[in-house]
Amino acid sequence: MVKHTEPDQTLIKMPSLRAVKAFVAAARYQNFTRAAEALCVTQAAISRQIRELEDHLGAELFNRAGRAVELTSAGSIFYDAVQLSFTNIAQAAERISSNSNSKHVVTLCCSQAFANMWLMPKLPTFFEAHPEIDLNLVVTQNFLTMENGVHPDIIICKMMKSHDGYHSQALMHDQVYPVCSPLYLERHPEICTVHDLRDGALLNLSPYGRSQVAEHVDWSVWFAYHDIDLKTRPTDTPHFFNANDYNLLIQLTLNHQGVALGWNHLVGPMVEQGLLVRPVDEILVLHDSKHYLSFNEDKQNDASCRRLYEWLLAEFGPECVEAQAS
How does pLDDT run across 55-79, given as a tens digit for each residue? Predict the structure, then answer.
């Protein structure tokens, strides 16, 4: 006797995924026409699917105001749930698709400054040596809270335990010193000491929008380390430019606009090339602050992830050994 499977009430009661997809697009763009364009369907199809979904749920999901729409309370509850589910589905589909392709995708997460100044110049060498690997790069300033569905294989940041399930290797200490362009120093020969530097045009990195996972070093902290109070800077000094984009500050420095603080692992190559110079010899070494290379423990046996991890360690070289020992 054949045993029949009982009806699965959970699956039966599920709304149409096509209708849910239309709902997510409409909620995201707050406009049925734009949602239709995003999904390559007609506006009428979006409206019909939303109506069917509302009928199925027995609740209105949108307040209509002309062409614009906004979520109702019920709509907001439903959107929070389905957006997370759709993100997980998309991530799983991408991973399966990546595994079925000849190339392997590795996800690396780091700061924007690290990506632009340290990683980008070195990537051609990595890709030439490993043509079978594609890199998915995620840049962020806040490693404490990542977007739903983002689970990097490798993370480079100042946190030894950025997330559960990662093994961390110490990379280096922060070494911070002033840098400017050769032309700027030529135009300002009066800069000979740290006190002279205090009274010049300073380009400062602000902490706004950055996760405070370690001590933030700005000009105030750097001068205090050298027993100088930045507040004693005369009122008639040149500009003090403040920004939370380190790439912008370095670009301004290269354009002869002032003196910025340089993190050695980022600006060291520019100093070696002569693009930047150190106007004074003083330096701040944060022995208690380290950068870490964190490896997702679930990917320990993934050959592509392992290759990128080992390549990164090799590129940092002896600095890793020194940081690990201290």
Answer: 998 999 998 877 788 899 998 999 8
What is the pairing mode between strands 154-157 and 284-296? antiparallel
Whether the Cβ atoms of residue 104 and residue 95 lie closer than 8 Å to each other? no
Largest CA distance in the chain: 98
pTM score over 0.90: no
DSSP 167-198: EEEEEEEEEEEEEB-HHHHHH-TT--SHHHHH
DSSP state for residue 204 in the 8-state scheme: E
Contact indicator for 182, 277 with CB cutoff of 8 Å: yes
Note whether 157 and 292 are within 8 A (CB). Answer: yes
C-alpha dist (Å) from residue 231 to 198, 235, 240: 10, 10, 12
Helices (H), 179-317: 182-187, 194-198, 219-225, 246-254, 264-273, 303-316
The SS3 of residue 129 is helix
What pLDDT digit, counting tens, does each position of 193-215 carry? 999 999 999 999 988 765 555 56
CA 29 – CA 41 distance, rounded (Å):
15
d(CA 64, CA 22): 16
The token duo for 133 is 């690997």
